[in-house]
Structures are given as structure tokens and as C-alpha cells.
């Protein structure tokens, strides 16, 4: 039926009397007037129902620990608090989230009995305002029993590694092997074999707007209404409904008009949708939660990190005969749907842009004590192409060949399209050789090589890097099922396709409205769709109004709906064209009767429906368009209504994996060829991009300005991945990059202007001939820059991000330890999060007086900075509550300190631990008291302390200074009290140290 309707619509001449079509023009963006004047409507801008409550989340400071107890009574008693939910409360009203593989494992949006990553929700506090909810969170006492943690995916597979889930023995969630062609024979016959080991690090997209959810529960109907800046895929709607224990028609999920960026990350808001909806159900009122930046960095999804060993069988001329992939994917603490999508999204494209017929693959998915992963721009592509394109350069160097010659020798032939890869992808169109030639010529590669030769002759570090990649777009929903065996897939039923949805409606005055089930995050959907539909109806884009909000209770959508995998131009805009063409075909039959011509003689042009052969024989488009409203009885019998047309489109090329595990992972495949020249400063080892050339074939270009904008945006994000950004974890799982002072993002000052070159080979599989273009440079740029840096330094291996410290180790070797005899107050090696310090202070009063002060609770309460309360449990055991601030945050801690090795009044050793919402710590120190001969006391102290949890991620650059301030505050207060001559109100040196230091010390080392 769809094909017949499309054929009918295509039979109508959509020409505009010689006018240039709107598609292909860089018209002014419809969205910009509001966005650039501060009138965007983001989730936190929208009003909420009266009585809406606000949520704050208490998060784990531990990477791995049992929850022994949670005391929420004090928090519940705080005025304004409506509800406090822990894991047991959430579990009572929800079900486990879907796990990405078949395994006896549960996955909850909040910790149940055990925490498995720093930042995992432990409690949700709902109150009349956010500040009150955060105050209540400070009153919750959680007792943890720490477990061993593992953060490296290869270490997670070790027999003695701590196990995160009993249902994932050995932390292995999935282990699948694949074989295509005859790779064993190809390796046996090949004259050369090259291998490379890659550890691709974690990084993330960092949108300007964080997660947001507003949820309410209708107890009468047991139905939920949720507003969230969720981007899709809307297959997750089913996951959310199942978790909330309601049928899909009782979960209304809406999106706001605008979203402040996503780049894939906002797919990861869905566990919080479940969590806040559960809170609304328990509280009996709507609940709003807006994530803060610290939460987003610490606990939202990041891209996967991957350990890859890639080997190639290679002929003497550099032709790659076979590939052997061994990939270990780290999906973090929980395998949440749709993961392991990042690993399998590229399965059909493991040979990249190259003609390689023999492939062997082993894919393992592991869990570690890190944030669960999700979709990030280019998901799967950066990890695959970094290994493949680094190996291509290694092959060239090993054989003494030019890397560009090796790339050209292996490219798929232009006459081979559509080309079926060994692993199953159907590459739709392209001429890769021509694209490379154009880039080399227009990008002036010869000039860049001459510049490199000149720089090297002067002793400068200059290199050139290349990369050629295929950019997949419009994901096949069935690719994720490749993680299952063929037998398991047959049992589960087929899953495939990439259904897109668009509705075109005409109102009673003939105005045109378009609605699509795709949530934009700044891509300009409304502008491009107005161009596409205006061309069909012979109108101007301003005559077409576009709505991109989604309301699952009212709108046409499918589980594939959403904005991901660069599907907008190829699938969504193309489907809008099909819907408009169906309506246009019916309008043509109506107008033909009124103009007394054949339907084939009708054209749509300049706001009129007219005869092709007599331009004066015409009728206003608005009049014909409104007829279904005003006079439906006068419509021709074969015309049908023209009020609204909805099209669901899915391409036939996207089939399920076959029994041999071949899968066409995506519908469209653009081509990118990049090269760049970089110079590395010999002194600072900072990498400077001298020139970056990027050639793109994304099929038909719908809006050139926005295509270039997408390329620039992807390039900027990729530059961050290459040179600055990394989610860093200490060995115990503490997160080390929880602020934008530690997780470094490139700014406009660091991002050079790339030279963008285009070539168009339209896709035969999409209605507009368009392919995706939004993710490609995230796939190509990191490895292109890495290849250039390796060329500049003459090294075989480089690891991202290419920060100067890492390059210094390559150029100068590992920095030696400081010579003996230096100050003992030095930091431990990086990752230890430890601090050692020592010092002295002078206190008025004899040692006996100071000693008495040290054992007096009233003294402790008086002089410990931020102390709220001190309790004496025994003569040598104290417990205190303190409130501390580091940088942008303040937290409450409970410190437990014991005294031992007492030598009154000369010396004492103290050992203690502090726990709080911001982290945990432990410390031990020795205090000695010695009379100074003038009636006073010289107090000498030394300590060792370590900390973990959130404070490590937010205070790494502040902890040393804060420690000195806190110690200084303590001794100042102690001296003041001692100077007053009374024991009451005196101070406790290392207790203050421990109460403060144990919760503050450490940081990124």
C-alpha cells in the first residue's frame, strides 16, 4: 500500500516552474530567532502543576560496597520533606530495568543492598523545594561495608577480580565469536601479519543542558505522565513502562519543545524517569528533578571504553587480506538497554571503507565499577576506527609504504556499490577513490608534505595523519540481536528495521503542519522539514509549521522513533516527503476536477495548484487544501480526505541477522576521508593542529549550512576526545574528573577551523538520497590526529587523550622520582589519592593543660571547623558531625576517631574514619606535645590520609589548599582556647584533622 501511494504521489509533477528547490539551500534557521534571544523552551523553563515537589538524590561515595543500613528518620522529620525513598521503597513499586543480554541479573535505577559505582543513587528525597531536599539528604546516615573494586576491563576478567553480579560470573556479561570467509587460511598464506593493542578511553558528550524529569502518577487509573528531555530511541518507552509496572498506554511520555544538546547522552535519562516516577507515586504528587552539573559528570552515561587487539594478514603490497578482532567492551556497573549497542552497532562495518573478505571476531562484554555506559555521538565508531586506522598506519610503516597508498590500495572499488561487506553491511553508494583524490587536491596535501619536510629540517616535531572511514546512519533495530546466537534469535522472534514516522496535516484555511517523531537537540529539524514539504506543495518554507515535540499519548510514533544514529535527514525528512507526496497526489485529483484537466497535468508552484500547460488555469493552494474541511462531500470519489496523512516508513534493506550472523547494521553509509598536519611543541609538548581537511560524502545535502555545522560540531567534540577529555578513575573506582576543571573540554580558542570538502553520491535507499552526517568526525578525527602525532614523534603507539604529560613520557620517558632528602610532605603517585603531611604549632599553656583539652568533647565541638556535635563514646573514642565545604559544594560528615598509644601528656596517636554524602576518608596521625620553656607547648603533628568518593572528583585541585586552611583554623582556635587558660572549649588537633582531613584529603594525584 505504501509503495502504491508513493508511486501515485510521484506521478504528480512537483516542479516549481523552473524555481530552484528549497532543499539544498542554506536558508535561515527557523529555530534561531528564539534560541539566540533566550526564548527557547527547555524543560526547566516550563511551568509545573501547583503542588509539584522537587527531588534530590543521595549518591554513593563508594565504587563497590554493601549497604548495611540506611537511617532516613531525621531526613523525614525535616519540615517540607514529603517522602524519602531508598532501594527497598523503589523496588516495591517498580520492576528491574531490562538488562542488555540474557542473564539472571537485575538492574535497578537505585542501589539495592549494594552500590557498584561512585554516584549510584542510594536515596531520593522529595520536598517542597530542591534546597530543602538537599538539606534532608545531609541528614541521611548510610553505613557501608566496602568491597574490592575493579575499573580495568581486562583486569575484570582476571580470576581473582571482585565480582559485581553473581549472574555475570567472572564479570563477563557476553562472549561471542564470529567468523566470515576463511580468515585462518588467509592468515596462514599471508606474507605479513601486523597487530595492534588499543585501549580506547572513556569520554562523554557534555551538553549545556543536563537531564530533567517531571513525573506525576494518577492513582485512580494507575497511569504515569512524564515530561523528560529524553531523545530516544523510543524502544525505551517499553522498558520504562515495564519497570513502572504499567501497560504502555498508561505511560504518557512527552518531550519539551527544545533540548539543550544531547549528542546521544540524553538517551541515558531513562533510569531517572523510572526513579522520579516512582517517587511521584509514593509521594502522591508531581515530582520534578533537574540534574546538576556535578551529578551529570559523575553519574550520567559515558561512552564505553574498549580494549582491542586487532591483527591483519597483509600482502607484500599492503593489501589487507583478513582481520582478526578481539574486543573487550567495558559497559560499567550495569548493562542497561540498549547496551551492548555500542559494541554491535558497527558489526557490519568492521572492515571500514576497505575491501576485506575474511574476518574473525571475538566480542566480550564486561562489567566494572564505573558509571553505566550509553549512547554517545558516533557510538561504536570511534572505538572501531581508532584500532583499524592506527593499524593501517602501522602496516604502512612496517612495509615502508606511504600510508595514503595503503589506504587507496584497500578502498572498495567505485563500481562495486551497493557493496556487501564480509560481516553483512550493505554499503549503499560511493566513489571513495574520487573522494580521496578531491580531498588531496583541494586540501593541498602536497603543500602540507612540503611544510612537514621543512619543519623537520629545522628540528621541529611535525606530522601528518590520514584516515578513511565509513559513517553508518539509520540504525537497523536488529543489529543489537547479533549479541544472541541464531537459535536464541529464532526463539525471541525477528527484530529489524528503522521505522520513521511523519504526519502532514492541512487545516481549514489550508495551512500546512508537519509533525515528526524525532526530538531535535539543535540540529534544525524544523527548518529542514519546512524546506522538504514546501518543495512538495510549491510553497515557501515559512508557509509550513513544524512540530517536533513527542507525546506518546497523542502522536504517531514507533519504538524506533527518536533522534539518534544520524537518522533525521535520511529517514525522518524522507518520510515527511513521502507523507507530503501522498497528500499532494490527492490534492492533484481534487484540483484536476476543478480545473478541468487530467491529474497528470497538475503542478504545485508559487502557492497555486495549476495546469502544467496553462499557468493561468490555477487555484490557490490554500483553497484546495481546505476543501476536505469545508466540503468533504464535493471531493472526487477517488481522492480521499486531505486533512491529515501519516506515513510509517521502514526500508526493506534492513533485515534481521542471518543464521551466519551477517547483519546490515545501518541503512546508509557515508564516506569520510580526513588528513591533518600537527606540530608538537618540543618544550611544552602541546599539540597544535596546523591544518585539518575533512572530505564528506553524505549523499544529497539538504541544507549545506547545517551540514557544515554538524561537521564542525562533530570535529570539536572529536578534538576534545583526542586531546583533552577522559573519564578518569582511581584504582578503587573513585571518580577523578568530576568538574570541568578536571574534565577538560575544548573551547573555541582551541578548535581550529577545518577545511570541509563535499562530494554527493545520493543513496538509492532513502527518499531524499540523503545519508547521515552528524557523527562522522567523532569517528574519524581522534585517530587522524593520533596518526599525525605518531608520525611527528616517530612512535608506534599512542594513547588518547594526547595530553602533554602523556606525550612527555613518550618523548622523555617516565619522570624519575624526586631525589632523596626532599620534603616528606610530598604527594603519592598519581591515582593513590593519598596525602602525607607534617607540621608544628605553638599553643599557649603547658602540655598537661593542652592534653586535658584534647580529651574534652566540649573542646572538640568548639574548635573543630564546621563541627555540629561531638559525643564521647569512651575515654578514648569520639564521634562527631561536621559540615565541610570544598569548592562548589558543602557536605555533612560523620567522623569516628579513636586514640591509642597514649603517652600523657607527651604524645598520642589517632586513627579515624569519616563518611558523608560527598565521600569517605580515613587517616592516622601522631601528635607530640613538648614544653617550649616559656610556659607554652610546641605541638608537632604528622599524618597520612586517603579519601574516596565524590569529593575526589570535585575537589582534586582544591584539597591541598583546603587542608592547610582547615589545619590552620584548628590550631588557631586551639591556641585561642588554650590562651584563655581553661580546659573547657579547648581543641583536638588530629580529631579536627581527621574529621576534616578524612573527608577532604586525597584528590586527584
UniProtKB/TrEMBL annotation:
Keyword Oxidoreductase: yes
Xref: InterPro entries: Ald_Oxase/Xan_DH_a/b, Ald_Oxase/Xan_DH_a/b_sf, Ald_Oxase/xanthine_DH-like, AldOxase/xan_DH_MoCoBD1, AldOxase/xan_DH_MoCoBD2, AldOxase/xan_DH_Mopterin-bd_sf, CO_DH_gsu, START-like_dom_sf
Keyword list, A-Z: Molybdenum, Oxidoreductase
SMART domains according to UniProt: Ald_Xan_dh_C (SM01008)
CDD domains per record: CoxG (cd05018)
Record region (Disordered): 1-23, 814-842
Organism listed in the record: Bradyrhizobium centrolobii
Residue ranges, compositional bias (Basic and acidic residues): 827-837
Upper taxonomic lineage: Bacteria, Pseudomonadati, Pseudomonadota, Alphaproteobacteria, Hyphomicrobiales
Keyword Nucleotide-binding: no
GO molecular function: iron ion binding; oxidoreductase activity
Ranges of residues in domain Aldehyde oxidase/xanthine dehydrogenase a/b hammerhead: 37-148
The name this protein goes by in its record: Carbon monoxide dehydrogenase
Xref: Pfam families: Ald_Xan_dh_C, COXG, MoCoBD_1, MoCoBD_2
Gene3D superfamilies per the UniProt record, alphabetical: 3.30.530.20, Aldehyde oxidase/xanthine dehydrogenase, a/b hammerhead (3.90.1170.50), Aldehyde oxidase/xanthine dehydrogenase, molybdopterin binding domain (3.30.365.10)
